[in-house]
Amino acid sequence: MTAKSQTKRRPNTPTLTEPVKIAEFWKNRRGESVRVSLSTFEGHNLVDVRQFFTDGAGQMQATRKGIAMSVYRLPELAAAIGKAIAKARELGLIDPEPSKAQQRVEGERAYAEWSGRRT
User: Fold this and answer.
1) pLDDT of residue 2 exceeding 90
2) 88-98: pLDDT as tens digits
3) Smallest Cα–Cα separation from 71: which of 50, 44, 98, 49?
4) Structural domain spans, the chain
5) CATH number for domain 20-114, candidates 2.30.180.10, 3.20.20.450, 3.40.50.720, 2.30.31.10
6) 3 sits in which H/E element
7) Structure confidence at residue 97 (pLDDT)
8) How far apart are CA 6 and CA 113, in angstroms?
9) pTM
10) Distance CA 42, CA 78 (A)
């Protein structure tokens, strides 16, 4: 790995005018959540995994806790998370069977592959 990898924007790559929320789930009972979104910043398309908190007015606010990276790194991130899930199951840290949510995601992925779309 290099200290800092540079990604060049590919020609004709679309950019997003607004962030697109992909998923959000509660982190704990204190009103903190984790949100996954896609956005464009200074011409670079990013995937952002960020912690949010509920403010006094009941609105969700982003924290500095999280990671944003080029969407080109998304397949590597997904592979790493897949490996972490497999290892956690192997070590008995999580249920050996996929959750209903994971089954839905796997079903959507299988449908996308069957229909010729990439996930």
Assistant:
1) no
2) 999 999 888 76
3) 44
4) 20-114
5) 2.30.31.10
6) none
7) 75
8) 30
9) 0.69
10) 24
Strand pairing partners for 53?
Answer: 61
Contact 47, 38 (CB under 8 A): yes
Residue type, 68: A
**Other CB atoms within 10 Å distance of the CB of residue 74:** 14
Q: Residues 6 or more apart from 83 whose CB is under 8 A from it?
A: none
Summarised one tens digit per residue, pLDDT across range 59-112 is: 999 999 999 999 999 999 999 999 999 999 999 998 887 667 777 777 777 666
Classify burial at 75, counting beta carbons within 10 Å of its beta carbon; exposed 0-12, middle 13-18, buried 19 or more: exposed
Q: Which residue has the tokens 């079903």?
A: 107
CA dihedral over 89, 30, 21, 13, signed as positive or negative: negative
Is 34:25 a contact under the CB 8 Å cutoff? yes
Report the 10 Å Cβ neighbour count for 23. Answer: 11
How far is residue 27's CA from residue 8's CA, in Å, rounded to a whole number? 34
